[in-house]
Amino acid sequence: MRIDSIEKLDKWRKECRRTFEAPKRKVIVCLGEGCLANGSEEVFNEFKKLVAEKKIPDVTVESVAKTGCHGFCALGPLVIIEPDGTFYTKVSKGDVAKIVDKTLIGHEIIDKLLYTDAKTAEKVANYEKIPFYARQQRISLRHCGTIDPHKITDYIAVGGYAALGKALTTMTPQQVIDEITKSGLRGRGGAGFPTGKKWATCAKAPADVHYVICNGDEGDPGAFSDRTTMGSDPHSVLEGMIICAYAVGSHQGYIYVREEYPLAVVTLQKAIDEAKQHGLLGEHILGTELSFDIKISRGGGAFVCGESSALMRSVAGEVGEPRAKYIRSVIKGLHDQPTVLNNVETYATVPAIVERGADWFAGIGTKKSTGTKVFSLAGKIKNTGLVEVPMGITLREIIFDIGGGVPDGRKFKAVQTGGPSGGCLPEGKIDLPVDFDSLTEAGSMMGSGGMVIMDDRTCMVEVARYFLSFLVSESCGKCVPCREGLYQLRELCAKVCDGEATEEDLALMERLAKTIKVGSLCGLGQSGPNPFLSTLLYFRDEYLAHIRDKKCPGGVCRKLITYAITDACTGCMACISVCPVHAITGERKKKHVLDKNICDRCGSCYAVCKFDAIEIS
Amino acid sequence: MVQMTINGKVVKAPDGEMLLTVIRRQGIDVPALCDHAAVEPCGSCRMCLVEITREDWNGWKKYVTSCLYPSENGLIVSTHTPELQEIRRNIMDLYLARCPGSELVQKMAEEYGLTRTSYKTIPEGDNCIMCYACTRICEVLGRNAISAVHRGHAKVISGPFDDPPPDCIGCLSCANICPTDVIEWHDQDGTRAIWGRTFDLISCRQCGKGIITRDFAEYLKEKRQIPADYFEICDDCKRVELARKMGGLVDLAKEVAS
Amino acid sequence: MTYRYTVNPSRCTGCRTCELACAFTHTQEQKPGRSRIYPIAYGPDRFVPVTCLQCDDASCVKSCLFDALKRNETTGAIELDKDRCVNCRACVAACPFGCALVDDVHDQVVKCDLCGGSPACARFCPTKALEYKRIA
Question: What's the CA gap between A304 and A306, in Å, rounded?
């Protein structure tokens, strides 16, 4: 069915809504990447099978729905029973029969599968009451976890493409740009450039052809919000892009998806095909003059291709290397034509702004960073997953209230924001409001919203070395400061880790970092030394401990630590069996002995000991 | 024409002309390793970095590669501030770690008082400074036979997929433009070996001297419509031929006159 | 073009002054091997000073893929832009008369540029076998 007018869209929406809301009770299984990896597809199929077999009066096969990511990836696979909102975590295939019998038929809640509140240790039945969800405000992720990403009808049912209809029929392109400008939306890719300004410049650039590109090359380790948006709510991204195309006068768009996101590619392609089938994409969208097509461009898995000019070269089929910065891509971008490039999250936010108005959006967040931002919580945190919060919320709220804090009773040490080229913020900065400007001021950056939380068993020098290693292998290698400089900085960091560095080396590192920062061609190099600079800024004493005292306070750097077995040892022999170099000897139920001369300090014994009997010093 | 200030001196230049060209015309020596007149600038060596600002930037300044920054009205350019010299010194220091054997690098590093690198010398480093002159000249030539393969620190210049480049015509432009002479080639027994490939050299029909590769001659014939037989005789023999022909005419004229 | 370079072989005595003048003007060395002009004997005591004829539809210009060869409209000479030349020797191979030359000492392509409008060979030629005349 082709939808060639607003009236037809509204009519279709009513039909979709009827189907979507038909089942009174619903079993929602999360099929986002995190849950999928934990076997949620089996859970989903089992539900379908058992529900069909049991013939429950108010639960049919149609009641079993799959959705995209809910964000709470640490507890997957997730199952939600609506309308009660019963939230089951870590559901396995074996649990399904019990859920069907007890909850679906018997209307009972299974305590064992419920979420346990980290602070009160109480079971929480309804997901809306879980702090992880309760404190969030979802705009860009508004449909993630509520709709089936593979069904355009689901998206239509929850109000999809209404914003596009509104823009096309009641607004001029200039009005759309004005609305986005007024909303104060800033690019969610990390740099925070005002989106409205970008669109306005591109729209004004004289050329026959304008391009709209969506940057889905989310390469930061620890960031996975764009993947979720593309995989769980692809139509929001498409709708945002079509609105942008209308605003800047484009007829061709590209979504650049990184190689590592195969599921997102499948979901997006399905969404594009369905949108085209229904006349929401392609020639004469919604029966208007607007014609716009979107193609998926798959990246080869290079981090640097997330940089706009390298990305455009990659889309054009060339080697993904950044180019000189005096050429602005909004004037001369892809194929030397004016190009708007925005992040996935930015596009997903656009329909909400168009639909609900700039004032509504500008009212959320802070004055200079409006709206909400999605963060990917990873590392040493209880609630690994995706959260969307208003800008200006403090790190403490995100990490402790929503994220549940650091697990295993350890102490919070630092949080790394903004991916590998971001920075590490210490406990002293925990009350920092999270917005573009305060993060930059504190020596880190917003980046794509990755947050890696570290506990007190983390060595900050090792962290810097790790992220520098990532950047060394991901630098495109075009310019010298980035290619050679980051390599040497990494080598020097490794020297510190090995306890072989001197204070002159540290001074050399600082000089080198400055050269890399000002001398590099693109953002990768310019922000490349940040892992080193920010750890040095906040943890200089740790660097000095490595250099002067030859000690690693985090107990990580192999060459500077020793392992020992304490009296807490129960003689369980677990460590003996895992030690790869046979440094531990002993008998059952007797305290084991570790030979420091043989010990390779790999940490296997520490990881396997259940009695905290391995001491690192 | 636009008006700028370079090191305190007011300078006029065509609008959009790259700063490096303008600066060098002023007789100011800004170093560069990846710059060559025959190819587009690429900004990889970062040695030509200059500091720019404007009256209306209120003291804000930035560093740009002068080879890739077009002239514009009101630009205030400084080419040799202590900060810039420090950056250039650090960059040469890095080059010295990568290409300790390159004479060009040694010579330039010495200008910044460096005789040995402060960093770890890279064990697998060769003298390639990754200036992309070879790949850019190949692009100008219209062949695009070689390019940079791999990423970051492991990047090397090679054919596609690190194999011998099928589009190479053995013209030696890459080897000739290379500032550090790292591209290996040799002519032997009427053949030329480069980039893991071997090409037939056209031998002079008269003296047997090698002229250019047959593939290069084919390419020139196809692209620039040069008759194939022009390439069959070497330049030495062609000059003798010309002298013989012209002399013949002179003799003929003398004969007719007498 | 306001001037034309002419060669009159019947006046050439093979004294090789042009060769030395050329080498010295371009390289400050009086080595005949570094000249852009060669008097070649085609018979006993009979010589032709062979040098670039600055052809109208020049093969060397056509063959250069880097636009390093361009005609100077004032002097009429086809000049080599040394900065742009990468020594691929397409011009050397393409010139039907063998007059785009290679300086063996520097392994560089060199070409007669009519000394920028005052060719030394013509100035020093004692018999006026080489002349650079105003034609308009």
Answer: 5
